[in-house]
Structure formats: structure tokens, C-alpha cells
Specification:
heterotrimer, A mainly alpha, B alpha/beta, C mainly alpha, A: mainly alpha, Four Helix Bundle (Hemerythrin (Met), subunit A), elongated, B: alpha/beta, Helix Hairpins, Immunoglobulin-like, four-stranded mixed beta sheet, 9 helices, about 40% helix, disordered N terminus
């Protein structure tokens, strides 16, 4: 028997399935959410259980400004995507750059906070349970933000050299899904660390 | 490729019979293994319970086995029937059997019935869990704190002021006036598990966690067990020996254990060796300057049947070998070879033998 | 695509090119069929290695106070055996079959992300090599820095710096972290392929069950492997950055590691078994000459199993001192998962009922699977009753139970899959005589070992012990277990010999040696590089049945 195919007995209706990039990113987000969940569970489990050392209440300062930066970057990336879909490359690049700046500000804020915690309060990852869980959870999130910023920058560079247009809109949407995820994780981390955990 | 072979039926029936006979033989042999000698119960079988807790587990296990056994018989019979009845008998490759896609009623039936079985099993199980884990501690209970170490057991009787190692003595419990033993389980290093099958289900010893178990045995005897949670190199030789004593025997034992160490001046040379070398860093002997806690308390070393947590019998030769070269008995244990001269070693062993 | 264009060449022409070129094609391939084969070959290599480790264990335990190996070596053996078999044998072989079969069965030309596919495979292979590098990589204190010896669950605080100096634990951690990312990549790929690449007409309700079950498996992978990865990152933080996640001296919790590990560990065994269910669900219908009984229920039951499996994890922790309420909860969920699992067994029986069963070799292995999976499930229920488990857990009863599932269930289903799809993959049939020898030898060896193994467990023998005391009634049983292990070893050798011999001189298979009904049997054996000359359109769950029986197509009844 040769490799014959099923004869088409009727004209098939329009057959289109979801864009696989979106499906893959959704899967990655689900997987990453599981990782973050475990770190959040560890954080919550160890609240109040440190035997020694600084406690959250003593040393944490709520990073309102930097949180606003990160969360607004979700808005700007959403706007940027919208512009790209409509082919407005210039506006897209502007808002894309703004997203990167806001994200970079957030990382700067995290770095500043860690500097203060380490040098003024002596809180490191090995100080006590709070230090271990705090730096791990916030650090894991910051790593994801950094990776996101790197990818956003790559797209920016491609965009500046004229390679990003309406045809790349779907791929850019996939990347912005990741960015929204990173922001959503921050909402959870913020609540757990700066609200519940204190 | 559709050629038919010789009839498979005798082959399959033969196979099924073989397997059943094998299983039956195994079960029979297992049940025979419950035979025990009067004083020491050599086979720590979970189906030979000698305490309240072990018995209630045993009764639950029989119930569960009965139900699962029944399920096995039903489903296996179905499988055997199907395999025999619906085998392809003809060489006729072009006729296919009736193509049946499913049946809602049948699906419902074999969903509902298992759910009912699950409910029954769950309720029976939950009852026993509660009875064992939430058992109240009577006032007359004997309290023991068990601390797991790599690779030995420390037993403390806080109310009696006794510290010993590896071999647990508990009083038999009279159903009319119960005197069960409640053990608080702690760990000094990694995870361990206290398992003496004939006396209780296993409970783990986890660092930074306090667990509890209890033994309420109505018959005297010696029961064997060992650590059941992998704890490192010598997990295999962290053995347990529980002696359920009559009230008088327990009193005698407890009184002897409470005494300070035997001050036998004939073996002063050996005692000096002990006091002046690293032994005192790890071991304690009551009423001497040895107060180390890393290793077992040796005050009444000679009251034990075994040394090195059951790894060897407590004889002069083994004691000597253990001190000279622990790796010969228990390679990877945390006792270092003491590198003593023969003279010192012999004196030391003679001294240790006075620690009744 | 040029490297794949070369795959169109016949074997004779390919034989003329330098072997380096062939090697280069294979190393750089992104073709799902080749990657599938690479996964399977990786698994077979590590099956042999894991089997050698098991043999060493069994020789040591053959009699009490044996000194075949030292306790240190023994402890490394059981750690490596478990880790290897789960992460570098069963998982890769399942990904291999999924990679090979899923695109063919759904009428696609490749997986959704061919390069991710290759990347995932090489991550897995690298992880395996890293784990085994530990055998020679450096030696720290006490000879540590050798293979990990902490058990495949790596319980804390045994894995802390204090109790595991050297790097042996780090090899375990990092090797699995790396291959874990590979597994997640494979999972993403399978989901993307199944959701986005099905051929026209193949609605989700018309996919072969193998596709459905691999979809569920892949979904489980995403949320199962990742908790282990998270815990392993925490362990590395403890070991290298001075963290205290599992540091009991600093108030940390050893039980937390257990929870995290088993939140991975239990769904993991469903990741292992669901593809086995998939094989059996494809093979039993063909050799019963009937469609699968209750297709929608089979899908539903599998999804239910996946969901419930996320809630049972602490049945591995019944002895750690959780409250009676926690224990009871996990008893309930553990018993509940038996319901959809039982439904599947009944549906397979229902498929065979009223059929015309052909006892070809794949079917023999499937029947073995049914018998043994039934027993394994029942011993699982026994352990689900927590007080009974307080006696059974940590003993050889558990070891017998899970080997019954994995070897008696999963490996039997795998053998069935090998005999069933080898013709499609290579174009040649596996030898019948060797196949029957393999089946009977393995069956006898399996039962001798694993039926018997339950007994020392019930007589008080804990697991993970390098030796045991004589006179506890364990001696003879252990000897019998070891004998069975050797018989299984011989059977595996027969199997490997069959694979090699048949690859070179087996009879030609043709497109459809089994008269089956799914799309992979509509193309040549082996399939061309592009799979389908033109993408098919399907109207039912059994497109080839429709084609072979145009007067009575499935589409009329679904």
C-alpha cells in the first residue's frame, strides 16, 4: 500500500486552530506559575518562624513607587502592541521603550532595596528564614523581570533597525503575554511579602 | 499477518493456574511465618500483632484485604473469561465483530459501585486513624523520649531519671489498669523511623518536629524492629529491640538503670583509659567525668544484649573489635577507630564489662 | 530542510555517505521521528545501566550479611537505580514515543516546535550524562563527590552540607534540574502540537486516545516537574548560599521538602503511567477488532485521574506525624483516584468483550499489563488505608507495589508498544519466536521477583538497607527475588537481541501489518520525512476504518 491519503469527500469547513506561539507561552506561564507557587508557599509557611535576626516589620519598606512603575509597564506594553497591530511602528517603538524604562526602574528599585537591607540591616539570604525566603522569592521574580527586559530589548533593537512590523504582531503579543505574567506575579509577591507577611 | 496460531486456551489457562498456585503458596508460606519461639519473637511480622495498636491495624488490614481480594477475584475472572471466550477462533480475517462504542448504563454501574466501596473503606480507615492517633494518654502511662541519631537510638525516661540506648524496656499493660508506654519521638540529625511491627505502626523521627506514638502490649516478650527511614550509610544496622517486661521485671530493670555507674576499683586502669581519651567526648557514664552526648550512654552497657544498635552481640570479643575497628562491624558508623594499644584496649574492655 | 531531504534516500544510498555525515544529521536533527528514536535509544541505554544497578542490589541482598558491595556503594546503587529508571528511562521513552507518534496520528508533518524538541532532548541527555559523571567526578571527604547516595527522593536534611559533604547531592540536583527543563519543553511542545496542528476534521473528540492521553500527560508535566525544580533551587540555595529552607537547626522544616517533593512525586507516577494507558488504549482495540469501549469516558477518566493525582501526595507521608484529619483527607483522595482508574480497566475489558482477540505479541503484553496493573492498583489501595500503611510504608511491600506498577504495568505496556510500532518505525517486523521467549521469560521473572517481594515487607523488612539480620524470616524470599531478577535480565537481553536482529533482517512490514485504524498506518513504514504527501482530512476517530469499510463508517455512529 502506498502512502495514499483519505480522499476528500466533502469540502472541509474553514479549519484553523489557535496560534501555537500563544499556546506555548500559556504553557510556559502555567509552568512558571507552579514554580512561583512553591516559593510563595515556602514564604508563607516560614512567616514568623525565624529564630533570630531581623523581622519583616523591622526592615521592609513598601516599594509603592517601583510597583507602580512595573504595573504601568503592563499598560504601556499593551498600548505598544495595539500600535503594532495597526502598523504604527513609531508609536509602537515609543511605548515599547517606555515599557523597558519602567521595567528597568523596577529592577533599580529592587537593587536599591536589597542594598539597604544588606548594608543597613544586615539581612542576607543566610541570616534567617525570612532572609532566605525573601531573597529567593523576590530574586526569582527579579530574575524573570530581567530576562523579560533582555527580550524586550532584543525586540527594541530589531524594531529600531526596521524589522518589526505588523507581520510580527502575533509574536510580539506572545512576548507581552510573558510581560503581563511577570507583572501578575509581582502583584502576588507584593501582597505576600509586604502585606500578609508583615 | 492475520494467520492464526494453535489454540492458545490451554496455554493461557495453564499460565493463570501457575500464577494462582504461586500466589497461593506464597500466602500460605507467609502465614506460616508467624510461628514464634516463646521468649523471643524472631520474625517481626505485621500479621502477628502483640499490642493494641498493632492489633487494630491488623483488623483493618484484614478488612481491606478481604475487599481488595474480592475485587481481584471479580476482575480477574472477567479478564480470564474475556480472554478465553472471545479469542479469535476462525482464520476468517475479513469479518469483524460487532463494533460496540460504549454503554452509559454499564459505565454508570462500574462507577457507582467503586464509589460505594471507596466510601466504606474510607470510613473504616478514618475510624482507626482517629483511634490510634488521638488516643488519650492515661495517667499511669510510662513516658519515654526517643531521640534518633545516626545510627543509634537514645531512650530517656524523664519521670524515672533513666537514660539508655538502643534497647527499650517497657512494662506490660494490664487491660484492667492500662499502663501503655507513650513515646515522644525526636531526632538529633536526619529523619529516622521507629518501627517494631508487632507493637505499632511506624512513626518517623524528624528533626525540629515532635512526634508521638504509643505501645500498649498485653503480653510480655522481646520484639524486634529497626529504623525504617533511610538516614545515611548505616541505616541498615540501626536496629531496635523492645522488651515488654512483667511489672516486676520492669521495676528491677528500672531500679538498676537508675543506679550510678558501678564503681569497681579493680578495673581502675581501664577507667583511666576511658577518662583520659576521646571516649568522654561522645559517651556518658553516670557518676564519672564522662558526660558526652553524641554517642550512647554507657552507664549500664552490660545490661544490653547487643552493641552498636544491634549490629553485634554484646560479647567481650565484639566489644573489643568495636572499639578497635568499628568499620569491621558497622562500616560508616560515626564511631572512630580509637587507635588504642592492646594493653589499653584490654583494660578498657575489662572496665566496660563492669558497667552492669 | 536539506538534511531531512536526505532522509528520503534509501538505506543503500545513505550507506554510501561517510558515517560522520550520518552522525551529523542525527545530532542536528529537528525531525520528530528521529528525535523520538533518539529519546528511545537514550532510554534503552539507561535501562541497561539501571538494570545493572538493580542486579548489584539484588546480589548484595541475596543473603543476609552479604559483602558483595560496601554499604556506601549499595546506597549509591539504589539512589542511582531509582533516579535513572524514572528520569532517564521511563520519561524519555514516553517522550520518545509521543514525539514519534503524535504528529503522525494527528495528521501533522512535525511537532509544533521542532527546534525546542531537539533542545529538550539534548537537555535530557546532558542531564543523564551529568548524573553519571558523578561516578568519576572528583572525590571530596569520605569519598563523597561520587554518585549520590541520598535516595532518589533526596530527603532533607540528609542532603544538607552537614550530612552530604562533597558534591554527590549536587550532581543529583543539577542533573535533574537540567533534564527537568527539558521535560517541561517537551510538555509544551506536545500541548502546542496537539492543540494547534491537528489535520482538518480532527476535532479534539476525534483524536486517537494516544493523543488525548499524551495531552493530559503533558499538562501534568507543566505543573508537576516544576515544583521539583523549585525545591531543587531551594536546596541549592541551602547548600551554596547559606540558605535555611530545609535547615532544621535554623527553624527550617524537613517535612517541607517532603511536601514539595511528593507534590511532584505523586503526579510524576501518573506522568509515567498515562502514556502506558495510551499504548494499551490503542493496541487492545486493534487486537480485539473493536473500537475502544467508552471513548469519552476514557478521556474523562484520564482527566479526572490527572486532577485527583494533584491531591494525594501526602499518602507517601502517612508516617511523618501529620494530624489524623490530614491523614484522613489523603486517605480519601487516594481511594477516590481508584475510581477513574478502575473505570479504565473496565473499559479495556469492555473493549475485549465481544471481540475476536488475536494473541499477537503486543496483545500478550497488554493482557499481562491488565492483570498486573489490577494487582498493583489493589496493593495501592491497601496502602491508601493509612494505618495499614503505617506498617507497609518504608518496607519492601512498597518497593514491590511500585515495581508492580512500573515494571508489571508500564514496562509491559512499553513492550507492547515496541512490538506494535517497531514495524512502523523501521519497516520490519520483530521476530515472533524471540518475542514469545521475551514475553514468557519476563513474565516468569517478573512474578518470581515482585510477587515474592511483598512478603519480606510484610515480615518487617525495611527498604534501602544494604544488609539484614538472618533469622527474621527474610532470607529465602530475598534469594527468590534475586533469582527472578536474573531471569528478567535474560529476557531483556533477548528483547535487545530481537531489536537488533530484526532491524537488520526482520521481514518487511508494509504500511499496515496489524490492519489498524489510525493515521500512522496510512503512510509507508518507515514514514517519509514529510509524513503525509498531502495533509489528510478525517471524519471520525478511526479514519482507516472508514476507508476500509466505506459501507459502514464510524462517522455514522459517533
Amino acid at each position: 500500500m502506498s502512502a495514499i491519503t483519505t480522499p476528500i469527500t466533502q469540502a472541509p469547513e474553514a479549519w484553523s486552530l489557535t496560534y501555537r506561539g500563544k499556546v506555548a507561552m500559556a504553557c510556559l506561564i502555567i509552568a512558571e506559575s507552579a514554580i512561583f507557587t512553591i516559593f510563595v508557599v515556602a514564604y508563607l509557611f516560614y512567616v514568623g518562624k525565624s529564630l533570630t535576626g531581623p523581622t519583616p516589620r523591622e526592615v521592609l519598606e513598601t516599594p509603592i513607587f517601583y510597583t507602580i512603575c512595573l504595573l504601568s509597564s503592563s499598560l504601556t506594553i499593551h498600548v505598544a502592541s495595539g500600535f503594532l497591530e495597526r502598523g504604527k511602528r513609531g508609536s509602537f517603538l515609543g511605548f515599547w521603550l517606555l515599557t523597558i524604562v519602567l521595567g528597568a526602574l523596577f529592577i533599580y528599585g529592587t537593587a536599591q532595596e536589597w542594598h539597604r537591607l544588606i548594608y543597613e540591616h544586615g539581612l542576607t539570604i543566610s541570616t534567617n528564614l525570612f532572609g532566605t525566603t525573601y531573597y529567593s522569592l523576590v530574586g526569582l521574580h527579579a530574575t524573570h523581570v530581567t530576562v523579560g527586559l533582555l527580550m524586550l530589548t532584543v525586540v527594541l533593537l530589531f524594531g529600531l533597525s526596521g524589522h518589526v512590523g505588523r507581520e510580527q504582531s502575533a509574536r510580539v503579543d506572545v512576548l507581552s503575554m510573558y510581560w503581563h505574567f511577570v507583572d501578575a506575579v509581582w502583584v502576588v509577591v507584593f501582597t505576600v511579602v509586604y502585606v500578609l507577611g508583615r | 499477518m492475520a494467520g492464526k496460531h494453535k489454540t492458545e486456551r490451554p496455554v493461557l489457562v495453564g499460565r493463570a493456574t501457575r500464577i494462582l498456585v504461586l500466589l497461593g503458596g506464597i500466602l500460605l508460606a507467609a502465614s506460616l511465618c508467624n510461628a514464634t519461639t516463646p521468649s523471643e519473637n524472631a520474625v517481626p511480622s505485621i500479621f502477628d500483632p502483640r499490642s493494641t495498636q498493632a492489633e487494630s491495624i491488623y483488623h483493618l488490614s484484614r478488612f481491606v484485604l478481604a475487599i481488595t481480594g474480592l475485587i481481584f477475584l471479580v476482575v480477574f475472572s472477567l479478564l480470564a473469561y474475556v480472554v478465553i471466550k472471545f479469542r479469535n477462533r476462525t482464520v476468517d480475517a475479513t469479518s469483524e465483530p460487532a463494533q460496540v462504542y460504549g454503554s452509559t448504563q454499564i459505565e454508570l454501574a462500574w462507577t457507582v459501585i467503586p464509589i460505594l466501596i471507596v466510601v466504606v473503606l474510607f470510613l473504616a480507615t478514618a475510624r482507626v486513624i482517629h483511634a490510634i492517633q488521638d488516643a488519650p494518654k492515661p495517667a499511669a502511662a510510662v513516658e519515654v523520649t526517643a531521640i534518633g541519631h545516626q545510627f543509634w537510638w537514645e531512650f530517656r525516661y524523664p519521670a524515672l531519671g533513666i537514660v539508655t540506648a538502643n534497647e527499650l524496656h517497657i512494662p506490660v499493660s494490664d487491660p484492667a489498669h492500662p499502663t501503655p508506654t507513650f513515646l515522644k519521638l525526636l531526632s538529633a540529625d536526619t529523619d529516622h523511623s521507629f518501627w517494631v511491627p508487632q507493637l505499632a505502626g511506624k512513626t518517623d523521627l524528624i528533626p525540629n518536629k515532635v512526634n508521638e506514638t504509643w505501645i500498649d502490649s498485653h503480653q510480655t516478650g522481646v520484639f524486634l524492629g529497626q529504623c525504617a527511614q533511610y538516614c545515611g550509610t548505616q541505616h541498615a544496622k540501626m536496629l531496635l529491640r523492645v522488651s515488654v517486661d512483667s511489672p516486676e521485671e520492669f521495676q528491677t530493670w528500672a531500679q538498676a538503670e537508675k543506679q550510678p555507674a558501678n564503681q569497681d576499683d579493680r578495673e581502675i586502669a581501664g577507667k583511666r583509659v576511658f577518662e583520659r581519651t576521646a571516649c568522654v567526648n561522645c559517651h556518658a557514664i553516670g557518676a564519672t567525668n564522662a558526660t558526652g552526648h553524641f554517642g550512647p550512654d554507657l552507664t549500664h552497657l552490660m545490661s544490653r544484649h547487643t552493641i552498636a544498635a544491634g549490629a553485634a552481640e554484646n560479647t567481650k570479643e565484639n566489644l573489643r573489635l568495636w572499639i578497635q575497628n568499628p568499620d569491621a562491624i558497622k562500616p560508616g558508623s560515626l564511631m572512630p577507630a580509637m587507635k588504642l594499644s592492646d594493653v589499653d584496649l584490654d583494660a578498657l574492655v575489662r572496665y566496660l564489662e563492669t558497667l552492669q | 530542510m536539506s538534511s531531512d531531504a536526505m532522509a528520503i534516500q534509501t538505506a543503500e544510498v545513505r550507506g554510501a555517505q561517510p558515517w560522520v555525515q550520518t552522525l551529523h544529521e542525527w545530532v542536528t536533527t529537528v525531525d520528530h521521528k528521529r528525535l523520538g528514536i533518539l529519546y528511545v535509544l537514550l532510554a534503552l541505554i539507561f535501562l541497561i545501566i539501571g538494570g545493572i544497578e538493580a542486579t548489584i542490589i539484588r546480589i548484595q541482598l541475596m543473603r543476609p550479611h552479604n559483602d558483595f558491595v560496601s554499604p556506601q556503594v549499595f546506597n549509591r546503587m539504589f539512589t542511582m537505580h531509582g533516579t535513572t529508571m524514572i528520569f532517564f528511562v521511563i520519561m524519555p521513552v514516553m517522550f520518545g514515543f509521543a514525539n514519534y507518534l503524535v504528529p503522525l496520528m494527528i495528521g501533522a508533518r512535525d511537532m509544533a516546535f521542532p527546534r525546542l524538541n531537539a533542545f529538550s532532548f539534548w537537555l535530557t541527555a546532558f542531564g543523564a550524562c551529568l548524573l553519571y559523571f558523578s561516578l568519576i567526578g572528583g572525590s571530596g571527604l569520605y569519598g563523597a563527590g561520587n554518585a549520590p547516595d541520598v535516595g532518589w527522593w533526596a530527603y532533607a536534611p540528609l542532603t544538607s552540607r552537614a550530612f552530604s559533604p562533597g558534591h554527590s547531592s549536587d550532581y543529583w540536583t543539577i542533573a535533574l534540574l537540567v533534564s527537568g527543563f527539558g521535560s517541561v519543553g517537551a510538555g509544551i511542545n506536545i500541548i502546542g502540537t496537539i492543540l494547534c496542528m491537528r489535520c482538518p476534521g480532527m476535532k479534539l473528540g476525534r483524536m486517537p486516545l494516544l493523543a488525548w492521553l499524551n495531552l493530559v500527560m503533558a499538562g501534568l508535566v507543566l505543573i508537576t516537574i516544576t515544583p521539583l525544580s523549585a525545591a531543587q533551587i531551594m536546596l541549592l540555595v541551602d547548600r551554596y548560599l547559606g540558605g535555611h529552607f530545609f535547615d532544621t537547626q535554623a527553624g527550617g522544616s524537613a517535612a517541607l521538602w517532603m511536601h514539595f517533593f511528593w507534590i511532584f512525586g505523586h503526579p510524576e507516577v501518573y506522568i509515567l503511567v498515562i502514556p502506558a494507558f495510551a499504548f494499551v488504549s490503542e493496541i487492545i482495540p486493534v487486537f480485539s477488532r473493536k473500537p475502544i469501549f467508552g471513548y469519552p469516558v476514557m478521556v474523562g477518566a484520564t482527566v479526572a485521574i490527572a486532577f485527583v493525582s494533584l491531591s494525594v501526595w501526602a499518602h507517601h507521608m502517612f508516617s511523618i506525624g501529620m494530624s489524623s484529619y490530614s491523614n484522613s483527607f489523603f486517605v480519601l483522595t487516594t481511594m477516590v483516584i481508584a475510581v477513574p482508574t478502575g473505570i479504565k480497566i473496565f473499559n479495556w475489558l469492555g473493549t475485549m468483550w465481544g471481540g475476536k482477540i488475536q494473541f499477537k505479541i503486543p496483545m500478550l503484553f497488554c493482557i499481562g499489563f491488565l492483570f498486573q496493573f489490577l494487582i498493583a492498583g489493589l496493593t495501592g489501595i491497601m496502602q491508601g488505608a493509612a494505618p495499614f500503611d503505617w506498617q507497609l510504608t518504608g518496607s519492601y511491600f512498597v518497593v514491590a507495589h511500585f515495581h508492580y506498577v512500573i515494571v508489571g504495568g508500564i514496562v509491559f505496556a512499553l513492550f507492547a508498544a515496541f512490538y506494535y510500532w517497531f514495524p512502523k518505525i523501521t519497516g520490519r517486523m520483530l521476530n515472533e519466536t524471540l518475542g514469545k521467549l521475551h514475553f514468557w521469560l519476563f513474565l516468569i521473572g517478573f512474578h518470581l521477583t515482585f510477587d515474592t517481594m511483598h512478603i519480606p515487607g510484610m515480615l518487617g523488612m525495611p527498604r534501602r538497607i544494604y544488609t539484614y539480620e538472618p533469622g527474621r524470616g527474610w532470607d529465602t524470599w530475598n534469594l527468590i527475588v534475586t533469582i527472578g531478577a536474573f531471569i528478567q535480565g535474560v529476557a531483556i537481553l533477548v528483547f535487545v537481541a530481537n531489536l537488533v536482529f530484526s532491524y537488520f533482517s526482520g521481514p518487511k512490514a508494509g504500511n499496515d501489518p496489524w490492519d489498524a485504524w489510525t493515521l500512522e498506518w496510512s503512510v509507508s513504514s518507515p514514514p517519509p520525512a514529510y509524513n503525509f504527501a498531502s495533509i489528510p482530512t478525517v471524519a471520525s476517530r478511526r479514519p482507516l476504518w472508514d476507508r476500509k469499510h466505506p459501507e459502514d463508517p464510524d462517522s455514522r455512529y459517533e
